[in-house]
Amino acid sequence: MVILASQSPRRKELLGYIFDTFEVRPTHCDETTTAPTPEGQALEVALRKGLAAARLARPEDIVIAADTLVVSHGEVLGKPVNRQEAFRMLAMLSGTTCTVFTGVSVHHGGQAYTLAERSEVTFFPLSEAQIDTYIETGEPFDKAGAFGIQNKGALLIKGIEGDFYNVMGLPVGALGQLLGQLGLMEA
For the packed helices 128-136 and 83-93, what is the interaxial angle rounded to 10 degrees? Predict the structure, then answer.
């Protein structure tokens, strides 16, 4: 059985590109991290989420967990807790390029395997009215950096370098390659 250790609807959608059937079993674990880099932070949290789910799974199950971080101007941007924080983040991203890191962990047979993916996202210059309009959609509130590249958030994005799906929260291609290397899916 394949288990997704996430409550993200985007990760659920993306894992469906790889597997026809799987179970969603979100974990609730401490997401504080001591890793010195954003990439390391995403990997550490993904590993912690995966380990929490793997403890409740059978050894033959495949547990997949992920964590995504957005970094702008040296600041890690999490999920905004209110409208003001969403506005601040989007204003910071306006006309600039941010980096999106996703750490992924795969647990199977008592072993853990990880990967990290990096993408660069460039925003159009955004007016206060554009930011307010986007916030009104409600999309910013469950996304790191207060934006999604899909849906209405696509209107904010000038370009992307790297994996589009990584920005959504699960680097599908890199995960598929890892699963294939581990013999956990057909290539």
Answer: 130
* 143-149-151 Cα angle (round to 5): 95
Measured CA to CA in angstroms, residue 110 lies from 3, 46, 50, 63, 175 at distances of 14, 16, 11, 11, 19
- The Cα–Cα gap between 42 and 29 comes to 14
Helix, strand, or coil (residue 81): coil
Whether CATH 3.40.50.2300 fits 2-181: no
67 catalytic residue (yes or no)? yes
pLDDT at residue 28, rounded to an integer:
84
Q: Which residues pair with 87 in a beta bridge?
A: none
Contact 78, 100 (CB under 8 A): no
Residue 153 clears pLDDT 70, i.e. is over it: yes
- Of 61, 67, 132, 163, the active-site residue reads 67
Average pLDDT, integer, range 147-162: 96
H or E element: which one contains 136?
helix 128-136
Q: Which of 69, 36, 63, 62 is nearest to 47 (CA)?
A: 63
